[in-house]
Write a structure and sequence with these properties.
alpha/beta, Rossmann fold, 16 helices, globular
C-alpha cells in the first residue's frame, strides 16, 4: 500500500507527527510511506526509520515570489516529484489550506482516497479547505494532544484500530550515538552532557538568559557539562553569552543541519529547553528532559507518559528553582 503523509511544518509539528510512521509500519510492514514537507525540515526525516521517500517543497518561500520564473520552475518540479506515482491513501495531518492544496495535487490510485481532519482541535490551527479537499473527513475530540491527534487520524484513515494509537509513541529516531562528533572533548571532561535549548521562534516562549546561567552553574557544580545549540544568528549570540559566564564546562555547537543536530542531541545525557522544535526532538530521542512553558499548553505539546520527561509551567515564567527540582526528579527516574 502506498501512503502519502502531508505535514509541511513547523518543526515541532513535524516531530509530533513522527510516530505515525511507526504506527503504520507496525500494522502494515510492507507499506510504502512518503512524506511531503518544507525543505528546511527534510533533513530530520532522513533520521526516521521506515520512510520510503521524502518530498521537499518550499511553499513558504514560493508564496512570497509566486510571479517569478524561478518559483514557477521550482513549483513545476515539485508537482512532478509529488505525482511520480499514485497513492492508495493521502493523509493531510496539517489541517491548513496549503496542506489541502498539496493533498489535492497528489495522484490517487484507482481506489485511493484523501483523508483529513473534520474539525479544529483546541489550540491548533485549522482551515476549512482541508475538509473540502478530502474524500473522508475524520472527526476528532477537541481536547487532544498533538501526538495523539496525528496518530488517531492516521489510524482511522487506514483502519488500523485503536491499538495503533493507544501504545506509547515510537518516533523512529533510533540513532546509535555515544559520543559527539562536533565536540568530542566534552564527554572526556565530565560524565554527563546536558544540552540547553533556549531558542524558539516566539519571544514570549523564551526563558531569561540569567536563568539559564544560574541553572547551568548548578548543573556544572553537580558534575555536568553544558552543550548549547542554536538555529539563528540571534540565538548564537545568546548561546555565546551564556557560555561566557559558564566557562570551559560549556560548549557552543556550530549551526547544524537537523540531521546532524539530531545526532548531536542523541550524544547528550539529558536536555532542558523551552517549547521549541529542537526541544521536541530531544523528547523524541528519549532524553531525560525538562521542557519550560510560560503558557499552559504543555497538555497539548509537552512530553507524554515518561517519568524522566516533564514540563514545568508558571507565569510569567518558571523559576530556576522549579526547573532545577524538575531536573533532579528526571535524573532520579532514569
Amino acid at each position: 500500500m502506498k501512503i502519502l503523509l502531508v505535514k509541511l511544518s513547523s518543526l515541532g509539528d513535524v516531530v509530533h507527527t513522527l510516530p505515525v510512521v511507526q504506527d503504520i509500519l507496525a500494522a502494515m510492514p510492507d507499506a510504502h510511506i512518503d512524506w511531503v514537507l518544507e525543505k528546511s525540515f527534510a533533513p530530520l526525516l532522513t533520521q526516521v526509520q521506515g520512510l520510503a521517500r521524502i518530498i521537499p517543497c518550499e511553499l513558504r518561500r514560493w508564496r512570497k515570489s509566486w510571479w517569478t520564473e524561478q518559483t514557477r520552475t521550482e513549483w513545476r518540479a515539485f508537482k512532478a516529484d509529488l505525482q511520480t506515482h499514485p497513492y492508495d491513501a493521502v493523509i493531510d495531518l496539517q489541517g491548513l489550506t496549503k496542506s489541502a492544496l498539496v493533498s489535492r495535487l497528489a495522484r490517487l490510485s484507482r481506489q485511493g482516497q484523501r483523508y483529513a481532519m473534520a474539525n479544529q482541535t483546541d489550540g491548533s490551527g485549522y482551515e476549512a479547505p482541508t475538509r473540502w479537499a478530502a474524500d473522508v473527513a475524520i472527526a476528532l475530540k477537541p481536547h487532544v494532544h498533538a501526538v495523539a491527534r496525528a496518530r488517531r487520524v492516521a489510524a482511522i484513515a487506514l483502519g488500523l484500530g485503536v491499538q495503533a494509537f493507544k501504545k506509547s509513541p515510537d518516533y523512529g529516531l533510533n540513532i546509535s550515538q555515544s559520543q559527539s562528533n562536533i565536540a568530542p572533548e566534552a564527554p572526556e571532561k565530565v560524565a554527563k552532557r546536558i544540552v540547553f535549548m533556549h531558542g524558539t521562534s516566539r519571544q514570549d516562549k523564551t526563558w531569561p538568559l540569567a536563568h539559564w546561567v544560574e541553572l547551568g552553574q548548578r548543573l556544572i557544580a553537580s558534575g555536568h557539562h553544558i552543550t548549547l545549540v542554536h538555529g539563528s544568528a540571534a540565538e548564537l549570540l545568546s548561546s555565546q553569552a551564556i557560555a561566557a559566564q559558564l566557562g570551559d564546562q560549556s560548549t557552543v555547537l556550530p549551526l547544524l543541519s537537523l540531521d546532524v543536530l539530531t545526532q548531536e542531541l542523541a550524544a547528550c545525557q539529558g536536555a532542558i529547553g523551552v517549547d521549541s522544535g529542537v526541544s521536541h526532538i530531544a523528547v523524541a530521542l528519549g532524553l531525560p528532559h525538562v521542557q519550560i512553558y510560560n503558557f499552559d499548553t504543555a497538555w497539548r505539546t509537552g512530553p507524554l507518559g515518561r517519568a524522566d520527561q516533564v514540563s514545568v509551567f508558571a507565569q510569567p515564567r518558571p523559576t530556576v528553582g522549579a526547573v532545577w527540582r524538575a531536573w533532579l526528579a528526571c535524573e532520579s527516574a532514569v
